[in-house]
Design brief:
- With 573 residues, the protein is an alpha/beta fold.
- It folds into three domains: 19-207, Rossmann fold (3-Layer(aba) Sandwich); 214-381, 3-Layer(aba) Sandwich (Rossmann fold), CATH 3.40.50.1220; 389-560, Rossmann fold.
- Helices cover 35% and strands 16% of the residues.
- A six-stranded parallel β-sheet has the order 3-2-4-5-7-6, sandwiched between helices. A six-stranded parallel β-sheet has the order 11-10-9-12-13-14, sandwiched between helices. A six-stranded parallel β-sheet has the order 16-15-17-18-20-19, with helices on both faces.
- The longest helix is centred in the N-terminal third of the chain and has 15 residues, at 65-79.
- The relative contact order is 0.10.
Length: 573
């Protein structure tokens, strides 16, 4: 395997030197601080791979382009930097679709570079052509709905504008995937000046100016002081902005309880006396009951309030309550529900200003803190998970003990969500990555590989069911080939569990297309050259953890489950 340095600096000065477009692409990746790029080469993209050969960027050969896109997404989520993937033309590009759609829904900054047939062959039926001419695939239309910016670059004359636009989208407060496609002949063109603009691009999204609607922020204290039982509901937008510390300080000072969305877990430690846990249809009942029964003011911080979080937009969550909404995306401020006070701005900046207000007024307003006894009462009343624990004793015990074993430094990518959500507390932001976005099964393993390469040295766990595992298990060999430490936890019930659950509750046990026969995963692991353990009892958990086998290398741990034990939450379909 090629070994490259992970140290990044401003790209070499190209002023007055001839540089190919392929070389400019690599220098652009370096400007973005990218250490690894995930993909599969093909003839039309080989000029870029050749330029990567002596660069500081390590190419990671995936087994499928969808896996490469998921890896780039995991890299971006774990590191906070831009992730990147690269493929050839035609099917190489179209295979990226689900991974890019997931990044689009999660607002994850992923840059996809694809090859294309030469411009002189457009419309002539060239192999794998995607120009949209002569009956070929129209790549622009194909990716339009799942990227924030997409362009087939047919001339070197405007390449600087393309890179500037891509940089702007990828490093914006509301980023998303960008796909740039380069015809083969354009990749090989040279220019003596086209790379000069790269020297002026800033290399860190953190340098973006954080702003907020100050007038709106200054109106928030009046609502808080009038409220008897305010509640903060924080989401992924608050997590991405790094608002956790300021939010916790504000919550603790005033005694305001905090619930989070699934993607916002860890913004407040779930062991805190002020934490209501996760608000959502697959979560414990605590947050829902408290908000319905007690809250008179909701402060929605960086949360979209989609179907899962809002219990299919349950009106009792909002009725009779004032609603303050904080978001850096103006399109979100009145989405789903109408806010009494919408405030546009960076969530961390808003809580910083609110904490300054507290610092100035605490002496004059010593009675500002709220009564937290109601939170304690509700925690005693609703202590149990929203799932029958007796049906999932083994899963619960293994996940709880595994979480304690790997510690707060571990990164967990979770395809299933229901078990982690009910059995394991999250006390640190940016360590738990649920299968949200478009909820695409099979993303946990490749995303975990990308995360491990972006933040080496931290334990990384992929948690998924046997159905999702068979959609992505070939990427374990990517981890093997690139010596990426990884722990894969496979929940084995020989079925598509969510589908089977719905057919049990809603279709009178008319099970169809949900059950299957699994391979022997021990033999599969052996063929991969990785460790395998099967958990069938408490004694197996004790032994596996005592052996320390999970602490290094690549491990597949199979946790056995019964297919007729169903979580008891209802999604409505």
């Amino acid at each position: 395997m090629q070994t490259n340095s992970l140290t990044h600096s401003t790209p070499n000065d190209t002023t007055g030197k001839k540089t190919t477009v392929a070389g400019l692409i690599v220098r652009f990746l370096e400007v973005l601080g990218i250490s690894h790029i995930f993909g599969i080469p093909g003839a039309h993209i080989l000029p870029v791979y050749d330029s990567l050969y002596n660069s500081s960027i390590t190419p990671v050969l995936a087994k499928h382009e969808q896996g490469a896109a998921f890896m780039a997404g995991g890299y971006a989520k774990a590191s906070g930097r831009v992730g990147a993937c690269i493929t050839t033309a035609g099917p190489g590009a179209t295979n990226l679709a689900t991974g890019l759609a997931n990044a689009y829904a999660d607002k994850t900054p992923v840059l996809a570079i694809t090859g294309e047939t030469p411009t002189y062959s457009f419309g002539k039926g060239a192999l794998q052509e995607s120009s949209g001419q002569g009956g070929s695939i129209d790549q622009n239309s194909f990716f339009q709905g799942i990227t924030r910016y997409h362009r087939i670059v047919e001339s070197i004359d405007y390449i600087d504008q393309v890179f500037r636009k891509a940089y702007s989208v990828l490093t914006s407060p509301n980023p998303g995937p960008v796909l740039l496609s380069f015809p083969y002949n354009i990749l090989k063109e040279e220019s003596a000046s086209a790379g000069d603009f790269l020297l002026n691009l800033k290399s860190s999204p953190a340098q973006l100016k954080r702003q907020a609607d100050i007038a709106g922020v200054d109106m928030i204290p009046e609502f808080i002081l009038k409220a008897k039982r305010p509640v903060i509901i924080a989401g992924y937008g608050a997590l991405v902005s790094g608002a956790g510390e300021e939010l916790c300080k504000f919550s603790k000072t005033l005694g305001i309880p905090v619930a989070t969305s699934l993607k916002g877990r860890g913004l407040i430690p779930e062991t805190s006396e002020h934490s209501l846990g996760v608000l959502g249809v697959t979560s414990r009942e605590l947050a829902l009951r408290y908000i319905e029964d007690e809250a008179d003011l909701l402060i929605l911080a960086g949360i979209s309030f989609g179907e899962r979080t809002s219990y299919n937009w349950k009106t009792s969550l909002f009725d009779g309550k004032n609603i303050i909404r904080l978001d850096n995306n103006p399109d979100q401020l009145q989405g789903v529900i109408s806010a009494t006070l919408p405030v546009c701005g960076d969530v961390r900046t808003i809580f910083e200003r609110l904490n300054l207000w507290l610092d100035k007024t605490r002496q004059q307003k010593k009675d500002a803190s709220k009564d937290t006894s109601a939170v304690s009462r509700y925690k005693q009343r609703y202590p149990d998970p929203n799932i029958r624990e007796d049906d999932f004793v083994l899963v619960k015990e293994f996940l709880m003990r595994l979480d304690a074993h790997v510690g707060d430094d571990a990164l967990i990518f979770d395809d299933n969500i229901i078990y982690m959500q009910n059995f394991v507390t999250v006390s640190k932001a940016g360590r738990y990555f649920p299968n949200s976005g478009i909820s695409s099964l099979g993303q946990a393993v490749p995303a975990a590989i990308g995360a491990q390469l972006s933040t080496p040295g931290r334990p990384v766990v992929a948690l998924l069911g046997d159905g999702g595992f068979q959609m992505c298990c070939m990427e374990i060999m990517t981890a093997v080939n690139h010596s990426v430490p990884l722990l894969v936890v496979l929940l084995n019930n020989s079925s598509l569990g969510l589908v089977r659950k719905n057919q049990h509750y809603n279709y009178h046990d008319r099970f169809i297309s949900c059950d299957f026969v699994n391979p022997d995963y021990e033999l599969l692991a052996r063929s991969f050259g990785i460790n395998h353990r099967r958990i069938t009892s408490q004694e197996d958990i004790d032994q596996v953890l005592a052996e320390g086998v999970l602490d290094s290398g690549i491990n597949l741990v199979e946790v056995m489950m019964y297919k007729n034990n169903f979580p008891n939450y209802h999604s409505g379909r």
